[in-house]
């Protein structure tokens, strides 16, 4: 073939990356890879192993140790032994170690990229140009946090020993996302890579050892799902960080319930890709290529749901189909391909099955007519158009190179369709009108939104989801907090057992007039409401004197309260100044009745007058604190290494159930409710079970303080029974529960249904008078989700 003919045809030829060094490295481990524990590679105690395969050919790639209980025990013991010494190192020393790891990644970048492409099946261009450089960036970035930890996180300490479980779609990048912040902040790690893609983790272990990382700081145990389950269930692990499917994340939430383990979950998604009629159509088409055909669509935040405005839908789809035809699917080490191999035959079968199901439900199938390599697991770029919002391909994560498309007419309809999902990980908005784009971005239920872009990532910008896409953030300052715990909570003692509910003692021979009966009602939707069951309970003083009655709330009362809270969504959109004013007004009105509330506390609890007055004064002060924070707890601007910014915007979680502690009946109630409403949440609160009258008195303060109906709802009754209802309720977005260890276990386990966020104390006592332990950023951070909105600019 002549040079002229090449110019005439402009056809691609193969441009293979050399795999000699990678194959040599594999050959050196032909006998099999062991676990990396306490700074050395060791075989499984059981001697068991399994094979890992090359997705592009189906051939055996390597033999890996299959971790069992003894291997996990050994890794955890090594991590525990090393943790205290690692945490005691000056931040500068840990920063030097992370810097060395970053430099080691850069020096061996090409080897890592080739091994990753062979092991995972993704194109070498992606591993070489994105995965490995971004992994190095994470270690550099978190070396900086280690250096300044003493000043930036002075009131926090490391969580301790961390178990981390990562998926197969970005094996090396996910390692960096999790290992870098954990090590930087003084934790030690046991990492369990995906069974399909463990090789770059083991290569990294070699590099880390060569870089001088102390033994036990990083441990890697390979294996299948059972190995991960052993890690999750291990009693001597302080935190689990998991990235993977929603189904497994739900099981982990249930398994760790009540264990006291910190937990972050980065799970599945079905991300919307919204194209308005004023968008740059060609730019948006290229965005789709990056959104769904990048990494063969095996991306948790893949923009797999295309929402296209009707006026440009035909043009958009025409250009998208034409662009699909130019995509090239081939061997991962070919530098000229756009898509490589699907991870494994089982995943390929799932993709094929779901596409057939979508067609049977009425979708129109379009697949690029391109040649696929023989052998291995390959699938062509695919578009399903005319999809209904309820179709399985519109609601379920396919995790393959399949885009599904539907149309909309108005921005309001686009928002409704975009949010019509149980997930909430990421979204893309395409419009040349920046005001429209930002307005829509603010209303999307997603942890990350890209404007006129997609799949942008950086170590300085937090990443994570809402709803069934999980909770917690990775990257940036917000990601650092996931690997820290408050100093004031270290060494907390178990809450002292509360005395049994005081019983009313009979009174005889008393000719005084009986008191006029008054049963405190529930407070729902801004109104006093009788309990659905018409049952009540008597509240007695420590001496057995009846001092009041409260309603016995039930499932229907919680349902009504949640409905009222949902209807008060305007509170989340109110100005921060307005919320601050109302909180100040609540404090002012409580101050006017301070003596009355102090008398009530003394009567219920038997506290001295001085202590009762001190609790009321502290409650008033706490309301002032959160009024002050209401218009000051603001977002930030990240400056990732690109032309653009990322806005880190704290958002209200939504409807939050609050189970108040049994002690400090007024201050405990205020300490939990105030930060939530200050940040725009609506609350369904269950007051102190033994001492609920401070809260039922408090609703008269709310009634006179301009608090909109439904913002605060109060349901009295059994803390554990009402907590069960709130935790299982799919329209409740989070539950805060302070009380017994059993209460924490129940709330965490039942919250797995819709993977709502939880904030519990595991039966540990909080000194509510201690401002460091009971107010401020510690609570505000848990009262919001941070949404990162990426805004590139320039040509």
TrEMBL record:
Gene Ontology molecular function: any one: oxidoreductase activity, acting on the aldehyde or oxo group of donors, NAD or NADP as acceptor
Classification via InterPro entries: Ald_DH/histidinol_DH (IPR016161), Ald_DH_C (IPR016163), Ald_DH_CS_GLU (IPR029510), Ald_DH_N (IPR016162), Aldehyde_DH (IPR011408), Aldehyde_DH_dom (IPR015590)
A Pfam family annotated for this UniProt entry: Aldedh
Active site residues per record: 266
Gene3D superfamilies: Aldehyde Dehydrogenase, Chain A, domain 1 (3.40.605.10), Aldehyde Dehydrogenase, Chain A, domain 2 (3.40.309.10)
SUPFAM superfamilies: ALDH-like
UniProt domain Aldehyde dehydrogenase: residue ranges: 42-488, 537-761
Keywords per UniProt: Metal-binding, NADP, Oxidation, Oxidoreductase, Potassium
Keyword NADP among UniProt keywords: yes
UniProt family annotation: Belongs to the aldehyde dehydrogenase family.
Entry protein name: Aldehyde dehydrogenase family protein
């Amino acid at each position: 073939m002549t040079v002229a003919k090449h110019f005439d045809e402009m056809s691609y030829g193969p441009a293979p990356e050399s795999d000699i060094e990678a194959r040599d490295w594999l050959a050196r481990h032909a006998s099999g890879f062991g676990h990396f524990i306490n700074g050395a590679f060791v075989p499984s105690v059981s001697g068991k192993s399994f094979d890992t395969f090359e997705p592009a050919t189906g051939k055996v790639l390597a033999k890996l140790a299959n971790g069992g209980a003894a291997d996990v025990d050994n890794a955890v013991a090594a991590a525990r032994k090393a943790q205290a010494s690692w945490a005691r190192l000056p931040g500068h020393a840990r920063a030097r170690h992370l810097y060395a790891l970053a430099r080691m990644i850069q020096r061996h970048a090409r080897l890592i990229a080739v091994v990753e492409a062979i092991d995972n099946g993704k194109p070498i261009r992606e591993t070489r140009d994105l995965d490995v450089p971004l992994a190095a960036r994470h270690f550099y970035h978190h070396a900086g946090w280690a250096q300044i930890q003493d000043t930036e996180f002075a009131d926090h300490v490391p969580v301790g020993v961390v178990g981390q479980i990562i998926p197969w779609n970005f094996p090396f990048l996910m390692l960096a996302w999790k290992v870098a912040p954990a090590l930087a902040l003084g934790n030690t790690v046991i990492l369990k890579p995906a069974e399909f893609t463990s090789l770059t983790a083991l290569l990294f272990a070699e590099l880390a050892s060569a870089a001088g990382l102390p033994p036990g700081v990083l441990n890697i145990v390979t294996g299948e799902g059972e190995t991960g389950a052993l890690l999750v269930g291990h009693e001597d692990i302080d935190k689990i960080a998991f990235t993977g499917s929603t189904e497994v994340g739900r099981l982990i939430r249930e398994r760790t319930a009540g264990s006291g383990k910190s937990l972050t979950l980065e799970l599945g998604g079905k991300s919307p890709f919204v194209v308005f009629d004023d968008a740059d159509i060609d730019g948006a088409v290229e965005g789709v290529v990056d959104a769904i055909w990048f990494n063969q669509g095996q991306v948790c935040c893949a923009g797999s749901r295309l929402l296209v405005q009707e006026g440009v839908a035909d043009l958009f789809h025409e250009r998208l189909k034409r662009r699909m035809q130019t995509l090239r699917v081939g061997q991962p080490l070919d530098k000229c391909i756009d898509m490589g191999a699907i991870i494994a035959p089982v995943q390929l079968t799932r993709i094929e099955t779901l596409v057939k199901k979508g067609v049977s439900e009425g979708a129109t199938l379009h697949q690029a007519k391109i040649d696929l390599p023989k052998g291995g697991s390959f699938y062509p770029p695919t578009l399903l158009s005319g999809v209904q919002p309820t179709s399985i391909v519109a609601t379920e994560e396919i995790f393959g190179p399949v885009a599904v498309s539907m149309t909309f007419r108005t921005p309001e309809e686009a928002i409704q369709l975009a949010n019509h999902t149980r997930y909430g990980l990421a979204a893309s908005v395409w419009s040349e009108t920046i005001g429209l784009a930002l307005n829509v971005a603010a209303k999307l239920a997603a942890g990350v939104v890209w404007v006129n872009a997609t799949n942008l990532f950086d170590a300085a910008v937090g990443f994570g989801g809402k709803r069934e896409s999980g909770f917690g953030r990775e990257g940036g300052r917000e990601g650092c907090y996931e690997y820290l715990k408050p100093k004031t909570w270290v060494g907390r003692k178990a809450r002292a057992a509360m005395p049994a509910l005081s019983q009313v003692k009979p009174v005889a021979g008393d000719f005084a007039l009986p008191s006029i009966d008054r049963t405190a009602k529930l407070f729902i939707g801004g109104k006093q409401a009788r309990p659905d069951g018409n049952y009540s309970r008597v509240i007695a003083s420590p001496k057995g004197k009846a001092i009041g009655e409260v309603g016995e709330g039930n499932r229907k009362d919680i349902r009504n309260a949640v409905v009222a809270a949902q209807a008060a969504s305007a509170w989340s959109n109110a100005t921060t100044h307005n919320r601050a004013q109302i909180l100040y007004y609540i404090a002012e009105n409580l101050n006017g009745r301070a003596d009355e509330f102090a008398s009530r506390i003394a009567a219920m609890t038997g506290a001295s007058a001085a202590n009762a007055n001190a609790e009321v004064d502290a409650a008033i002060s706490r309301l002032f604190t959160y009024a002050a924070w209401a218009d000051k707890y603001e977002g930030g601007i990240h400056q990732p290494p690109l032309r653009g910014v990322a806005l880190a915007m704290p958002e209200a979680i939504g409807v939050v159930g609050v189970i108040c502690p049994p002690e400090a009946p007024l201050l405990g109630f205020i300490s939990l409710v105030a930060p939530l409403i200050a940040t725009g949440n609506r609350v369904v609160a269950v007051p102190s079970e033994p001492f609920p009258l401070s809260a039922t008195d408090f609703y008269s303060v709310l009634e006179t303080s301009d608090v909109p109906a439904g913002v605060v709802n109060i349901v009295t009754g059994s803390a554990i029974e009402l907590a069960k209802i709130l935790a299982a309720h799919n329209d409740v977005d989070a539950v805060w529960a302070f009380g017994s260890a059993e209460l924490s276990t129940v709330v965490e386990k039942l919250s797995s249904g819709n993977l709502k966020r939880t904030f519990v104390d595991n039966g540990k006592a909080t000194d509510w008078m201690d401002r460091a332990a009971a107010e401020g950023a510690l609570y505000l951070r848990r009262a919001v989700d941070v949404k990162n909105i990426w805004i590139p600019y320039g040509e």
